[in-house]
Amino acid sequence: MKIQLHTKDGVKEIEISEEEALKQGYLDEETYLMRKFLQLLKRKKDLLVKLEKL
Amino acid sequence: MRIYKITTRHSQLVDVSTPHLSADLSGVGNQQTTILPINYSEIIQGTWTIILNNAYYLAGYIGNTSSPANGDEIHYKVYIAKGTHTIILGYREYTDAGILEVYLDDTLLDTIDMYNSDTSNILTVHRIENVNVTSDGLKTLKLKINGKNADSSNYIVRLMYIALMRTA
């Protein structure tokens, strides 16, 4: 996920994993778990679509 | 009244309604302004980021959590009409929060200790009443961390919104 760091020198964008964002406090545990759950749900949906094609 | 309308080709005397003077318009408008904290005009000190957190009103906040330090400061330019206003800050109290000073231009309006050992409130609404603005114009609302409660472990501010409401 992308994180924007706003400072007096401008905006810097960094890309870090959800795990790292959780560790650094950019996400709380509930939001982290919700994002992970949605990612898994999407993955499951994609796999089901593939299975139906077989 | 009649004025001369001058173009590159000719001049013409035309009738116009009496224009308003700036004094006639003074204090008109600006009933309520809501500022999302990410819409700052200038950062003076600190690294400010958007934090996603379901435990907060609006599911997140802007804060100086990356590298909090005493003196972290963020500014918001806002046009305010002459009159009396209430300034409202929505934020979250926490065990690592700092003390926030609120200025309108260079006038210190209030000092808010954002520390609380009880972190169960998802939103604290702080009202600064009777802010008297003597003339219309672009003002700078300045938020600056100045110290911390003796029991607080850091200088963090977790800001969700700022609102200005005209009351008179």
Number of strands of chain B: 13
Order of helices and strands of chain A: EEHH
- Which overall shape of chain A is indicated by the principal axes computed on the Cα atoms? elongated
Low confidence ranges of chain B:
none
Strand content of chain A: 15-25%
Low-confidence stretches of chain A: none
Choose one word for the global shape of chain B: elongated
CATH class of chain B: Mainly Beta
Key structural traits:
heterodimer; A: 54 residues; alpha+beta; two-stranded antiparallel sheet; 2 helices; 2 strands; elongated; B: 168 residues; mainly beta; Jelly Rolls; six-stranded antiparallel β-sheet; 1 helix; 13 strands
Can you give me a brief rundown of this structure?
Chain A has 54 residues and is an alpha+beta fold.
Structural features, described:
The complex is a heterodimer of chains A (54) and B (168). Chain A has one domain. Chain A has two helices and two strands. The termini of chain A are far apart. Chain A has helices at 18-24, 29-53, and strands spanning 2-7, 10-15. In chain A, helix 1 runs antiparallel to helix 2. Chain A is α+β, with helices and mostly antiparallel strands. In chain A, strand 1 and strand 2 form a beta hairpin. Chain A has a two-stranded antiparallel ribbon with strand order 1-2. Chain B is mainly beta. Chain B has a single domain, classed as Galactose-binding domain-like (Jelly Rolls, Sandwich). Chain B has one helix at residues 22-25; strands at residues 2-6, 11-15, 32-35, 42-45, 49-52, 60-63, 73-80, 83-91, 99-104, 107-113, 124-133, 137-145, 158-166. The two termini of chain B are 34 Å apart. Classes of the chains: A alpha+beta (54), B mainly beta (168). Chain A binds chain B through residues 3-8, 24-28, 30-31, 34, and chain B through 38, 40, 42-55, 59, 65-66.
